[in-house]
Design brief:
The chain has 21 helices and no strands. With about 400 residues, the protein is mainly α. The protein has a single domain (about 5-175, about 195-380), classed as MFS general substrate transporter like domains (Growth Hormone, Chain: A, Up-down Bundle).
Length: about 400
């Protein structure tokens, strides 16, 4: 592994995903300022995920065909600039615009970024992708805390202070991050016209479905849990702690699951880890006070432990289409889940936020069903890569 480049690249991923966590804790304040309902809040989430996630397959195909270094620095800079302006938007149209453009920035970074994370190592790719995802999930978890502190101290007019990390990380990535040789070797055969191996699209569809369910559960809780907690009389900065517990569970789940998938097998980890998550989500909803943080935290660990195995499995089954494979499991899945947030918001208006969260808690069991259907593909998940990226020594 090229450790220095991998570390800088993962740090950049952290900052990039920091901005995707800005919107959820601010939704009650933005709705109050702009006169939006719960349905409107869900639509804002859908707009963010449409730009930040559903556009990723397009970025993935572009980066597979035309690999270049600029995707990463341009993406993270754009995300920081526009999400930093979220509190400065004077009207709904401008608010939608900054959310959409910021989302495009985060999307630009991800497909090539995920491929580089695996290309920088030749062994234990499950652990490598877990560390990389952990960095991004850490940023996603820290985003609500950072923006809540800024807004809590200075108000919505100072959200641009949240863009300051990009001024550090973009130059750092340009000078110390991955170089062009980290991805050029993987496209050598494609450039010379060699045919790419066929893809088992049924397996890819099942993997993408599980990723979509995982994203739907997290987005539902991230987007509407603040309204549930507000109804219970819990303040902005305390609500951010609940969101941090959920997202830090995401962080540890990826880290633990990636290491286990290399040792125990990807399918085993993907199948068994989500089984207890619904019971823990229900325990969270029934538990008063800060004790509720524990089942929420553990539930997030369990559903996200399957994520690294799913990404590496998709990359193994889509040789020389790794950018697209990563985009389907991360971007497309999250974007598809995000499109439903407007409907989730409408359901919350009709049936209460609590009932919506209660029903969403059962969805990890559907992931288990889909993982069971993937059992025939286990040999392909566990097989050694059909081609390795050979990197020069440090």
């Amino acid at each position: 592994m090229r450790r220095r480049q991998f570390l800088v690249h993962s740090l950049t991923h952290l900052v990039n995903d920091l901005y995707t966590g800005f919107l959820p804790p601010l939704l009650p304040l933005l709705c109050a300022r702009h006169g939006l309902s719960l349905t409107g809040a869900g639509i804002l989430v859908s707009i963010q995920t449409l730009a930040a996630s559903l556009s990723q397959p397009l970025w993935g195909m572009a980066s597979d065909k035309h690999p270049a270094r600029w995707y990463a620095p341009v993406g993270v800079f754009t995300a920081g600039l526009f999400f930093g302006m979220i509190g400065l938007a004077p009207g709904i149209a401008s608010l939608v615009a900054v959310i959409f453009l910021g989302g495009l920035g985060t999307a630009c970074f991800h497909p090539m970024g995920t491929h580089l994370a695996t290309a920088l190592t030749s062994r234990r790719k499950g652990l490598a992708i877990a560390l990389y995802i952990t960095a991004g999930a850490s940023g996603y978890a820290l985003g609500p805390v950072l923006i809540s502190q800024i807004v809590g101290i200075w108000g919505l007019g100072f959200t641009l202070l949240g863009a300051l990390p990009v001024l550090v990380v973009v130059p750092l990535w340009m000078f110390l991050g991955p170089k062009s040789d980290a991805y050029s070797g993987n496209h050598h055969a494609l450039r010379n016209g060699e045919p790419r191996p066929p893809v088992a699209w049924k397996a890819i569809a099942l993997l993408t479905a599980t990723s979509t369910i995982r994203a739907f559960v997290l987005l539902t809780f991230l987007s509407f849990l603040p309204f549930h907690l507000e109804k219970l009389g819990i303040g902005l900065q305390t609500r951010a702690i609940y969101l941090f517990a959920l997202q830090f569970g995401d962080v540890l789940g990826n880290l633990i699951g990636g290491g286990l998938s290399d040792r125990l097998g990807r399918w085993r980890v993907m199948f068994w880890t989500p089984i207890l998550a619904p019971l823990l989500f229900l325990a969270f909803l029934k538990t008063p006070g800060f004790w509720a943080l524990l089942p929420l935290f553990i539930a997030a660990i369990l559903i996200f432990a399957s994520a690294p195995g799913g990404i590496v499995s998709a990359q193994k089954m889509m040789v020389r289409r790794e950018g697209l494979a990563s985009a389907l499991q991360i971007g497309f899945a999250w974007g598809l889940a995000g499109l439903f947030m407007g409907l989730v918001g409408r359901a919350a208006e009709l049936f209460t936020v609590y009932r919506v969260l209660y029903l969403a808690a059962f969805l990890p069991w559907l992931m288990v069903v889909f993982f069971w259907c993937l059992k025939p593909y286990r040999p392909q998940f566990e097989a050694e890569p059909r081609e390795e990226v050979i990197l020069p020594p440090l």
